[in-house]
Amino acid sequence: MYLEFRHLRTIRAIHQAGSLARAADILHITQSALSHQIKGLEDQVGMELFHRRTKPMRLSPAGLKLLRLAEHILPEVSRLEEEFRSLRSGRSGRLHIAIECHACFDWLFPVLDKLRHAWPEVDLDIRQRLAFDALEALRREEVDFVISSDPIAMPGITFAPLFDYEPRFVAAAGHRLAQHDFIEAEDFEEELLLTYPVERSKTDVFSALLTPARIEPRAVRQVEMTEVILMLVAAGRGVAVMPDWVLRNVEDNPDYATRSLTEQGLSKRMYAATREEDAIVPYVAHMIRLCRSEPVKLQRA
Question: Does the predicted model carry a pTM greater than 0.70?
Fold first, then answer.
């Protein structure tokens, strides 16, 4: 037996309308075309689907079986059609995010909260396990949006600049380096440096300062959470370099001393990486705009 969606819609319409004439109006076809369609379907089934001599028309046992099938399948088809319409219009979709910057969580959650309210049909998620291979995960379509400060040339991947920030030194207020006006690479030689658990090439203090100067700290300790790093710094258990938006919260705290790296200070830029074809999707474009505005609010707070 060969069934089409129109057959199921016909069965449902006649059941709801109770006559061929009213069902034809519902389906926007002629009564003659509807009768022809029913006859073809009954030929396939090998039995009548309606009791035609009753008013209103009633389904036969075979027709009731097809009605149950229609009531199960047609709502699923309608939902799928609506999903496709939403995808075409950009109202729904997926935005799975990978972050190469641990400290970005400070401003990312307010961004996602705003995006969630603006685009309730978009599936939002943060894929932390892919942070160490974020750009390759983007290329493989395992994620859709990567926050990174290290753009690299990749076919099919575009990097949208978000905002500039300053990596700054932080130590306990009584630390010997708190007496310096600024911090240079050589100052780290005797220090235990607290960093996030990422490779050195993606750590600002190494990529922008220590590696070019060929300076190695006395020791490096990797710590997952920003709050724990700051706690250890305040306790005199190490020093750290963190983005300016993080250290805005401690600059007036007497437990900490913050300084620029080098006399001129360092400047880095954050980027949003997406696949080229996704950059113009409405909710992705909105995400980029929010990622440009929210961190700057923290920097200026």
Answer: no
